[in-house]
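Re: duplicated header lines in exported C-alpha cells

Our pipeline writes sequence and C-alpha cells for each protein into one text file. With two proteins the header for the second block appears twice in some exports. Here is an export where it did not happen, for reference. First protein block:
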Amino acid sequence: MDKVTWDEHSLFVRGERIFFFSGEFHPFRLPVPDLWLDVFQKIKALGFSGVSFYTDWGLLEGDRGTVVTDGIWSLDKFFQAASEAGIYLLARPGPYINAETAAGGLPGWTLRFNVMLRSASPEYLNATQNYLATLGKAIADAQITNGGPVIMVQPENEYTSWPGANPFPEQQNREVMAFTEDQLRDAGVVVPLMVNDNFNAGYWAPGSGLGAVDLYGIDAYPLRYDCKTCS
C-alpha cells in the first residue's frame, strides 16, 4: 500500500504527487476487448490520468455459484490496455453499483430473497461472497503493488443517505460496509479503499467507526440535475 499514499491535497503514486483526474469507462458496456486500448488512449489524450470502472455482479453471476471471468468477461485485457495507455484505475466492484443498471447490478436471483438487500441479513451477505472473492482476486492481481494499474478500490456504491431520510448509518449499515471491505481485503486488495458520499455527511470517512475507508470522496453534481427538466 505504500506505493499509493496521500495528504490533504492529493494522491502520491510511487512518491510522485498526482491529480487523479478520472474518466469513466465500464468494460461490460463495450464487451469488445480489442477496442479497450483505443478507448484508454483517447481518454489519456484528453488529459485524464485515470479511469473509474464498475463491474456488474448481475452479469457475472447470473447463475448463482458461477462467476464468469473468461472471454469478454475477463478483465485481463482491460488492465493491460490501461497500463499500456498510462492510465491509473479506480476499481468499483460493488456489489451494488447503481450505474443505471437493472437492480443496480444485483443478480436477478437476489430479488427472490425475502430479506432487505444491502442489509446485514446473512442470506444477502453470504450471497455476495463468491462474487467479491472472485472479483476481489482479479482486482488484487492488477494492483500497482503487483505491477498493474489499479491504485484504489471502492467498496459498495453511494451507500449513504439522503436529506430527510431515516437516520444513517445504523449498526447494520456499518456491518454491511465492513463485511464488503473485509471480503476485498481477504481477496488480497491492499491499495486504499475510498467511498463516494452523495450527501457530504462524512459517511464512512476515516475515523468514523466500523466501515470507515481510507479516502473520503463526495459524489457531487455541481449543477445537480432534474430528471423532469432536460435543459
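Second protein block, exported in the same file:
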Amino acid sequence: MPADLLPISFASTVVGFISFAFTFFTFLRVFWETLQTMWFAKKEVRQTLDNLRTELYGERAYFKNAMLEAKSKSKASTRESTELTPLSILNDSISTMMADFRTMESPFLDRDDDEDVDVEKFGKVSLRGDYGHMNLRRRTLWLHTKADFMDIQNQVTRIQARRIAYETSNTLSCVRQVGKHIDDLDSRVYALEKHVLGETHDNENTDVKRRDPSK
C-alpha cells in the first residue's frame, strides 16, 4: 500500500470501529430496556393503567357536569351558550381516548370492564382494574403497547391543560363581571348620596337640602 494512503486507511478503520461500537452499545441499551420493561411489566401495568383510568374517568365526570351546567345556563338565558362548543370538543376527545384505552386495556384484564363507572359515586377504589396474571404473552404485549398508553397519557395531560385554561378564562370573566357590578353599584350609591345630602359644587362646598317646615 502506498505510504500516502496509510493515513486514509487508518482514519477509515477508526471511523468503522467507532460506528461498530456505537451500534453495539445502542443494541445493548435497547436490549436492556426491553428486559427491564418485561421484568417490571406487572408493576408498570397496574400503576400506569390504574392512574390513566382514574384520570380519564375523572375528566369525563368533570366535562359531564360542566356541560350540564352550561346547558342549564343556555336554557335560562334563552340562547345557545358559547361555553358548549369547547366543552363538547374536549368531551368528545375524552370519549375517544376512553374507547381506545378500554380496547388496549382489555387483554390485561381477567374480565372485560365495559361498565359505566360514576367516579363521584364510587370513588377511586372502584377504578382499579382487575388485572390478570402477568404471563409471557401479557409481558410481550405490554412491551409493544406501552408507548401507546404513554401517548394517551400525554393527550390527557394536554386536555387537562386546556381545561385549566378554560376554567381560568371563566374565572377571569366572572371577576370582570363582578367588577362591573361593583362599579355600577358605586355609581348608584354616589347618586343616592348626592340626592339625599345635597349637591357638591366645584369648590367642594356642599349645599345640604333641608325640608321646609312650612310645607
